[in-house]
């Protein structure tokens, strides 16, 4: 498993994926900070108000797209020149190939989350907000990453079966808008893309209760295991053309 993960990391060397992973968080932060700066008469809750602005663009739109891009990219090489046929005939198990890709994507998203939080804190201090930032920040980051792993499992399943690079990204965008509908209907815990909205406190910064946290962790685990198992089963039973 370790060698399979290392091989996946090697595929990302000399790629330009890092530019995308850094550009979208910076863009979302700039948009959010501009909204906050020009509306400070309305947004008077300092760090929390700034978070509502920057996380709305980042957590609701850009992060799901980043996850989809990462998943499509780590499957891109296998889809080229029928390389899947070579992968499926190696001694590596199908499960290890999928899980290695999931680990790599999860690691990339963890780096993006860390980068975004550093940007958020620096932006807040630049705008004159008093230190320290909200104590809930750590929970938003961690829950957002956990939800991202569940979404990564969904997107990997799609990218493994769809040769097109852009189609899974388009599906992710559709998932974002469907997820908003689930969130508004108070059913966000039961749709993977809505879990990101809940976990990162995008639309509501109220702390989750113990029961809500338990349900959040349970549903993310079920989505991650369920879609991972489905993808592995499909790869085992269906030929890749």
UniProtKB/TrEMBL annotation:
Signal peptide: none annotated. The chain crosses the membrane at residues 56-77, 98-131, 137-158, 170-195, 215-232. Keywords: Membrane, Transmembrane, Transmembrane helix. Pfam families: ABC2_membrane_4. This is ABC transporter permease. It comes from the Bacteria. It comes from Paenibacillus alba. The keyword Transmembrane helix applies. CDD domains: ABC-2_lan_permease-like.
